[in-house]
From TrEMBL, chain A:
The keyword ATP-binding applies. The keyword Nucleus applies. It comes from Pipra filicauda. It holds the Pfam family BAH. GO terms for cellular component: nuclear origin of replication recognition complex. GO terms for molecular function: ATP binding; ATP hydrolysis activity; chromatin binding; DNA replication origin binding; metal ion binding. This is Origin recognition complex subunit 1.
UniProtKB/TrEMBL annotation, chain B:
GO terms for molecular function: ATP binding; DNA replication origin binding. Component of ORC, a complex composed of at least 6 subunits: ORC1, ORC2, ORC3, ORC4, ORC5 and ORC6. ORC is regulated in a cell-cycle dependent manner. It is sequentially assembled at the exit from anaphase of mitosis and disassembled as cells enter S phase. Interacts with DBF4. Interacts with POLQ. Residues 64-224 form the AAA+ ATPase domain. It is found in: Nucleus. Its main location: nucleus. Keywords: ATP-binding, DNA replication, DNA-binding, Nucleotide-binding, Nucleus. This is Origin recognition complex subunit 4. The gene is ORC4. The keyword Transcription regulation does not apply. GO terms for cellular component: cytoplasm; nuclear origin of replication recognition complex.
Length: 879, 441
């Protein structure tokens, strides 16, 4: 949305350069004007204003305060800002420190070091309000969630602090300054007075006629859009803002500064006055927050274009109507000056202010829109109210009714209102909140609300809790088993110290430099690749928390956990920003994110597990992944994990492999000593295994490399149970896989427990381990053949005989059948029928002792053995 | 002798009523047909039973994640074993309501997408509305993984995944489902236990290396490892009537009879023969089913002859049965093909060759056989083709003439000779011709 809008915006400096630095060749300005081409409206943002800045997530722009504006040597418009951060930008684990619910309207004064405060001025979206609050205060309720933020605490990356009085006053001062009108003298009273009547109007409306909701909504929808068109609508909500509108039209600053302190006091007052509202407000807060989910701030923006024309036109007309019907003939003069709406409005009301009158009952804003007469009546009525209550000290209503943002264009709500009106004021939020409840239902854009059944996106998945508590391990063996489970997280990763250090150094250096890079990690399964990487990340996070390293964001994807390689984009984007979009859109967004310099961007560490699964024919997923880190501004570190060492050479195109770079690391399979060490360190003080037993497990898991004859002998020695080829089967099944090793140990404890349930000194010995290994890795074929029925065995023998006769390791059933009958004759047995033979054959085929062709060939079906002839002979002979 | 014996029996048991017999039929048929139910008994797999029970108990009580495969040939009682364990597990006090079960079958969940939807449905997670699961494949996967990731060992309810026909899941793309399930079982997430049932002995070789590494390599083998004595015992137990049978004297008589049968030489021979062919208990049940069907009011007790008859039916050759119903002309064609097979050592033949061979026979033995026209012979040949006694080597195409299409005979010589032995009213010349192609010399 923003990108589209941005293309139509022109940024230009406001006023003359204030100062220029010749050496740096920069010139400083005090404001920037954003002109929207489409609607030909201008927004002026000045130093000290609070602004929204485009961020990673289009739905969640950053909040900042504009500190400086300058044009650098290359004629780029730059801005220096003080950041504020949303709750969403604070790491999950740190949020707990707050110990309270955070409204989405609350921001934190950002004191984290390392964020770039120098941004491109073109990323400024618009200006907003940020109001400092004391820690104890509740957030006031306002409708205008997108434009008002509150700051209570500061955040320095480690902890939250209350705003220091200095900062607080500075923020306040800034706000005041920003909102102080720079208007020339004759306008000041009008400026202050006018809003009062308008304000009262809105208060009355909302208090007495909640049905207004709809019409209010209709206006509020376009509010944001208007804001960007009209330079005066920038700071619309509050008393001070209204004055600022004048400031823009008359840019002398002297007066405004003087007034500032008063206004601030007023503001403080009205916060206090709102305090009693809290109880009533708390309930409503819930609806607010849910609202936010459903209505991203971008929605109003999107309305911008469509609404702009009518919106600009409308006030003009309305205004002229007002003037025509106002009781003062002088008003007519203003009707011609339709262009300068707000100034005129103010002047009119200044005039109207002199007219005494009585307060008349309510009118809906809608009717006001359609019927000009009513509008004028309303204005008249408010003028009368103004006359009655001339007290400037209270700005309560202005504050609370700031929710009535929809009034912003025609009525400037800067109301110093009388305190006696407080009863009405209290009712204001009620109605406004009501309207906010109605709002989503009426806005078609907001359909994906969390509650709707068709969209399970926001559902929180959870497995039900167990009804009984899990039992604690009762015996030594159970304790050992718990520790030996692969899922148990060890305190340290023994035997991977070197690899750990290498990866740590790599990521650390990139983090410190603020650059990007790739590292490719390979190794056979179960060698601790993922575990080591996780351990590295954990340590880095620890270091980042202790402020030894710049903070970073972790994103982890696993090729095996994706349904399609392109889903990688979706997952990365979701983990990064929380957006859920389609794969193609996600790719675009990510490319934009990593290829363009963004403000306030942390380094991203991306772990890509099972990289080979991301392979596509065009390899565009891999290409993009490895291309991003090479971009200048990406700040992306990729740790890619896969099994094969030569993956880049084997499956990647040259351009992909080249981007992956040469930073590679291979995890060697564990040696038996290392495996032994791993088991011992896991068991630690739990004495459940004999030393020899551990050694046996480790040795069994170790693939002997060239010259590892001793290990081979050990394996053959203990594999008494099966034939030679099955021994080799076993060796193939084994590897330096730590998972395997732990599983064997776990099984051994079970066998030990199973065998001797009563004996007190339970300790796993050699026998148990051997049994476990036999059970897990003995070739099942031998056993299956021995337990087959007699005719099945004869059939296998017949196959062997047929193979020997033909000299080919393949035969048809018919040939085997003849051999079978011959064997039956020798054994003196009844020969089976062909049907029985086929049944035998398909049974052996189902358990894959035989490999069969499709069975429709019947007698001509070809048969092969799925294991070696030696194994079959070995299995059959020993009976 | 058979009829005399049954008459005597009839006299003995004229008290047995029709209801009684139908009751017997009902009990026994239920026993033979609904095998995978947990009501039957387990034979010879007590060790495996204890192993599996311990495994699942640890999952439910301690929240320990596990994975195991139950491997055994068809009919070896894999499902029965699992059902028994689950039934006993559900009866335990600490376990009740503490285990979520997800049952998948490789024949039903033919892709990971379907399987994931089924899992979400069975777990009744939040994106299930009614019976439908919303969201795309990717969303469902992410959703499910998220759900399982949130749990931990001590607080989440353990989930048991039963994957029937496990070997079919192996063929899913990338083995995504298996990888994820096994990965969860090997990481500190919601405790899960994955039990796979398969009849393939080479199942581990089918797993992808990463999937294999995550599998705990626990395999429970069911091998039908009983001997003939136990087989007889199973036979006896399966046929015996339960103690709670309404008509007690009849049940007593029936059970006594079964006891006698199990010691009978003829019965033992029948059983021995079957045992030699297959140890699969389903075949035994099928045999007994055939035998029990012979029990009627007039023939209330099972006899050895019944079993013999059942065994004969059970083991008859299907193709030889078809040959019985053929016409003499068709038989002659088959004999001609047999000779062609002998002469050309199993090389394929076509109709013309068969016809020529048949003509040779007719010319020599013209007196015993009517000389059929060629189209008639062709018709007979096509009938054989339809019965799948002959099979073309390749699909018949429009261009090739039917007479010259290459064929193979799907009968073995022994089958042909056996069939001829029992073929009624077979001309002697044909029989002689069948015995030797040179009989005219």
């Amino acid at each position: 949305m923003n990108t589209r809008q941005q293309s139509k915006l022109i940024y230009s400096w406001y006023g003359k350069p204030m100062s220029s630095d010749r050496k740096l060749r920069t010139t400083q300005y005090k404001g920037i004007i954003i002109t929207s081409e489409s609607s030909r409206t201008e927004t002026c943002i000045q130093l000290g204003d609070f602004i929204l800045v485009e961020g990673v997530n289009a739905d969640r722009p950053y909040v900042a305060q504009l500190l400086d504006l300058y044009e650098d040597g290359a004629q780029h418009k730059r801005a220096v800002v003080q950041w504020f951060c949303h709750i969403g930008e604070i790491p999950q684990n740190k949020r707990k420190l707050l110990k309270r619910e955070i409204s989405s309207q609350e921001v934190f004064f950002d004191q984290v070091l390392g964020y770039d405060t120098d941004i491109d001025a073109q990323t400024i979206i618009k200006s907003i309000m940020v109001i400092p609050l004391h820690p104890g205060e509740e957030l006031p309720i306002t409708l205008n969630k997108e434009q008002t933020f509150y700051v209570k605490q500061s955040w320095d990356g480690k902890c939250f602090k209350a705003l220091s009085p200095d900062t607080f006053s500075k923020l306040k001062a800034k706000k005041k300054k920003g909102s102080t009108p720079d208007s020339s003298e004759p306008f000041i009273p009008s400026d202050i007075l006018t809003p009062l009547k308008k304000e009262t109007e809105s208060v009355v409306q909302s208090a007495t006629k909640p049905k207004n909701a709809e019409s209010k909504h209709s206006v509020s929808k376009s509010s944001l859009a208007k804001e960007r068109q009209s330079q005066r609508a920038v700071n619309d909500i509050k008393t001070p803002t209204a004055r600022k509108k004048l400031e823009l039209s008359s840019p002398t600053r002297s007066k405004g500064r003087l007034l500032g302190s008063e206004v601030l006091d007023l503001l403080d007052d009205d916060r206090d006055a709102i305090a009693p509202l809290e109880s009533a407000a708390t309930k409503r807060k819930v609806t607010f927050t849910s609202d936010i989910l459903g209505s991203p701030p971008k929605i109003p923006c999107s309305n911008d274009k469509s609404k702009s024309v009518s919106d600009t036109a409308e006030p003009c007309q309305r205004f002229s109507d007002t003037i025509r019907l106002s009781p003062y003939p002088k008003a007519k003069d203003f009707s011609e000056k339709a262009k300068n709406l707000h100034v005129e409005d103010d002047i009119i009301s200044l005039v109207g202010h002199q007219k005494p009158g009585t307060q008349s009952p309510v009118l809906t804003p809608r009717s006001r829109r359609t019927c000009a007469q009513r509008t004028s009546a309303l204005i008249a009525q408010h003028i009368s109210v103004l006359n009655q209550e001339d007290d400037l000290s209270s700005s309560d209503s202005s504050y609370s009714s700031s929710s009535e943002e929809e009034e912003e264009e025609e009525d400037v709500p800067c109301t110093p209102e009388k305190k006696t009106k407080s009863s009405r004021i209290f009712s204001t939020p009620k109605s406004s909140s009501k309207s906010s409840v109605h709002t989503p239902a009426k806005t078609p854009k907001k359909t994906p609300l969390p509650g709707t059944p068709k969209t399970p996106r926001n559902a929180t998945p959870e497995i039900p809790r167990r009804s009984h508590a899990a039992q604690k391990p009762a015996s030594v063996l159970e304790e050992a088993r718990l520790r030996l489970h692969v899922s148990a997280v060890p305190e340290s990763l023994p035997c991977r110290e070197e690899e750990f250090q290498d990866i740590y150094n790599f990521v650390e250096s990139k983090l410190i430099d603020g650059t990007g890079g790739c590292m490719y990690i390979s190794g056979v399964p179960g060698t601790g690749k993922t575990a080591t990487v996780h351990e590295v990340i954990r340590c880095l996070q620890q270091a980042a928390e202790n402020d030894e390293l710049p903070p970073f964001q972790l994103v982890e994807i696993n090729g095996m956990k994706l349904t399609d390689p392109h889903q990688a984009y979706v997952q990365i984007l979701e983990l990064l920003t929380g957006q859920k979009v389609t794969a193609t859109h996600a790719a675009v967004l990510l490319a934009k994110l990593f290829n363009t310099p963004g403000p306030k961007r942390k380094t991203t560490v991306l772990i890509v597990d099972e990289l080979d699964l991301l392979w596509t024919r065009k390899q565009n997923v891999m290409y993009n992944l490895f291309d991003w880190p090479t971009q200048k501004h990406s700040k992306l570190i990729i740790l890619a994990i896969a099994n094969t060492m030569d993956l880049p050479e084997r499956i990647m195109m040259n351009r992909v492999a080249s981007r992956l770079g040469l930073t590679r690391m291979a995890f060697q399979p564990y040696t038996y000593k290392q495996l032994q060490h791993i088991i011992s360190s896991r068991l630690k003080d739990v004495k459940a295994f004999e030393e020899d037993a551990i050694q046996l497990v480790s040795r069994k898991q170790y693939i002997p490399r060239a010259g590892g004859m001793t290990a081979r002998v050990v394996i053959m020695h203990s594999d008494k149970m099966s034939g030679f080829s099955s021994v080799w089967h076993n060796v193939a099944a084994l590897s330096g896989d730590a998972r395997r090793c732990l599983d064997i140990c776990r099984r051994a404890t079970e066998i030990c427990e199973f065998a001797e349930p009563k004996r007190s000194p339970e300790i796993v010995g050699m026998a148990h381990v051997t049994e476990a290994i036999d059970e897990m890795f003995s070739s099942p074929y031998i056993n299956a053949i021995r337990n087959a029925s007699l005719h099945e065995q004869i059939f296998l023998k017949a196959i062997l005989a047929e193979f020997r006769r033909a000299g080919v390791e393949e035969a048809t059933v018919q040939q085997v059948y003849h051999q079978h009958m011959a064997l039956c004759r020798i054994e003196g047995m009844q020969r089976p029928t062909v049907s029985e033979m086929m049944a035998i054959c398909s049974r052996l085929g189902a358990s894959r002792l035989l490999l069969l062709e499709a069975s429709n060939k019947y007698l001509h079906m070809r048969v092969r053995l799925n294991l070696s002839q030696d194994d079959v002979m070995y299995a059959l002979r020993e009976e | 002798m058979k009829s005399a014996m049954s008459k005597r029996k009839l006299k003995d048991t004229c008290g047995a009523s029709a209801e009684c017999i139908s009751q017997v039929q009902k009990i026994l048929r239920e026993r033979f047909c609904h095998r995978p139910s947990a009501t039957g008994k387990l034979f010879g797999i007590e060790f495996q039973y204890r192993h599996l029970l311990e495994l699942l108990k640890r999952t439910t009580l301690h929240g320990e994640s596990n994975s195991a495969l139950i491997v055994g040939p068809r009919g070896s009682g894999k499902t029965t074993l699992l059902n028994h364990v689950l039934k006993d597990l559900r009866e335990m006090k600490q376990v009740r309501g503490n285990l979520l079960e997800v049952h998948l079958n490789g024949l039903l969940q033919t892709s990971d997408k379907v399987a994931l939807k089924e899992i979400t449905r069975q777990l009744q997670l939040e994106n299930v509305v009614g019976d439908k699961v919303f969201g795309s494949f990717a969303e469902t996967l992410a959703f499910l993984l998220e759900a399982l990731r949130k749990g931990d060992r001590t607080s989440s309810c353990p989930v048991l995944f039963v994957l029937d026909e496990f070997d079919l899941f192996v063929h899913h793309k990338n083995q995504t489902l298996l990888y994820n399930l096994f990965d969860i079982s090997q990481s500190a997430q919601t405790p899960v236990t994955i039990i796979g049932l398969t009849c393939r002995q080479d199942i581990l070789e089918l797993l992808e290396k990463r999937v294999k590494s995550r599998f705990s390599h626990r395999q429970i083998y069911l091998m039908n490892s009983f001997d003939f004595k136990q087989y007889i015992k199973i036979f006896k137990e399966q046929l015996s009537l339960p103690a709670e049978f309404p008509d007690e004297p009849f049940a007593q008589k029936w059970n006594d009879n079964i006891q006698h049968l199990s010691e009978d030489k003829i019965v033992q021979d029948v059983l021995q023969n079957l045992f030699h062919h297959t140890k699969d208990l389903r075949s035994l049940y099928f045999l007994l089913m055939l035998a029990v069907s012979a029990v009627t009011v007039h023939h209330p007790l099972l006899t050895a002859a019944d079993l013999q008859e059942a065994s004969r039916q059970h083991s008859t050759d299907s193709k030889a049965n078809i040959v019985h119903g053929l016409s003499v002309l068709e038989i002659c064609l088959i004999i001609a093909m047999k000779h062609l097979n002998d002469v050309y050592d199993g090389e394929p033949f076509n109709f013309q060759m068969v016809y020529n061979e048949f003509q040779k026979f007719i010319q020599r033995k013209a007196h015993s056989m009517y000389n059929f026209e060629k189209p008639v012979v062709m018709k007979a040949f096509e009938h054989l083709l339809q019965l799948e006694l002959v099979k073309p080597l390749e699909r018949p195409s429009a261009r090739a003439q039917r007479e010259y299409l290459l064929m193979r005979l799907l009968l073995d010589n022994t089958q042909i000779m056996d069939a001829l032995q029992v073929y009624p009213n077979c001309p002697t010349d044909v029989k002689q011709w069948a015995a030797s192609s040179l009989s005219w010399l």
